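To start, an entry.
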Amino acid sequence: MARRRRVYEGKAKVLFEGPEPGTLIQYFKDDATAFNRQKHAVITGKGVLNNRISEYLMLKLGEIGIPTHFIRRLNMREQLIREVEIIPIEVVVRNYAAGSFSKRFRMEEGTLLPRSIVEYYYKSDELGDPMVTEEHITAFGWATYQEIDEILNMSLRINDFLCGLFTGVGLKLIDFKVEFGRLWDENDEMRIVLADELSPDNMRVWDSRTNQRYDKDLFRHDLGNLQEGYAEIARRLGILPEAGPRDLKGPETLQ
């Protein structure tokens, strides 16, 4: 890793220059952070689990026509991805009240919402990721109205698919965060694609029957063992061997 050029390092991942132009290597760290980095720990195996879960969900979404930056998993902690221009907006889709939403509206966590609610947040640690509207997004040039429509439609499709997938393995999707980027092809034509990751780091997932949490709230609020929670999601999805996390051969490249 030391011989590769580091492009970017975030709270949970590092991006390195890829083997070919237009590609990057995404490395998943074991770091866990919460409350804008005010709480931090290193949890062994977390990066391995997030790599596997994100790979699985990205491939599944690709099968239903959601374009993503994912190419293939390289090893236990790394993925090969397409380089994109990240749109600085975090899209949060909420199916049940939880977290900051519960506090804002004084709703008990786990309350089913009348319908799925989509919120936008400006991606800025310095500002604390403030909530924004479509007017902010277009006024400051972060995305066009057409891009917002595309992002909204994709986010709702992702939500529908993930809700069904998790319901089938006895889980319910409380909420999740996604990011998108602009990808140009060889003809300089641009399309919006799902970027970043899809893992328990950026979604809330509870047991359908008991409401046991298996997501990052275990770490945020000291509710249990985060590694065991993430491993349970991987087991339910059928992507974690009984022996635990280990390096398995990655799938074929998703075209």
About this structure: Residues 54 and 199 are 5 Å apart (CA to CA). The longest helix spans residues 145-167. The chain is about 25% helix and 30% strand.
